[in-house]
Amino acid sequence: MILYFSGTGNSRWVAERLSEETGETLASIVHLMKQKTAITEELLKVESLGIVFPIHSWYAPRILVDFLQQVHLPHHTYRYAVCTCGDDAGKGVQRLSKHFPLDAAWSVTMPNTYIPMFDLDNDALCYKKIKEAHSRISAIAKGVLNRKRVWEVHEGKAAWLKTYIVNPLFNHFVISPKGFRSDEGCTSCGACVSACPVNNIRLQEERPIWDRECIHCMACIHICPHEVIQYKNTTRQKGRYHLKKYLAKS
What we know:
alpha/beta, 2 domains
């Protein structure tokens, strides 16, 4: 079985491709948590369990960590993780493995989406990353089918510092719903409400309101059809990321 968490769609796409190549059943962690069926008989019986997720500030998203704390598998279950990251993963997967032991782990480089701090990758780089991701996923699928015990995660420079120092500081001082807003041009379509994986957005007087559980996945910003959702003054004129655009020619 493959479980995934995704905000802007990169990790979902990787999980879907991996599911196709391995023949493993696919399920959304968000869906399981909403149904409160995180622990099921099916999950306890699987011979292999894969976790696919994006790196958020060089660690796993809080929702994934919370979910995995509820999962207790038999010792014989083959466990692996596949993280997506714009550049590097730091020690994020290694840190996660201390809470949820892993037999194998891989990283897949995908287009950057965290526009409050970084620019979007240009089109040429996005196409390149997607093309290389196809090959990478195929290699990972073979490793999973052969039950390989490998650790192929691109941690990058200053990995320990990023995960164990920068990440906690980032979570404390930056991760907050404050700063999100909708500019003029909002049509109250509700796309942001539907896209939020933690049910953190609601419409009030026909405008989106962000509540306390924000994880800064940026799904709301990139999904808005009118590009009017902003984070402070850092996302204006930075464009928006749409994975489907790059899949059409990959």
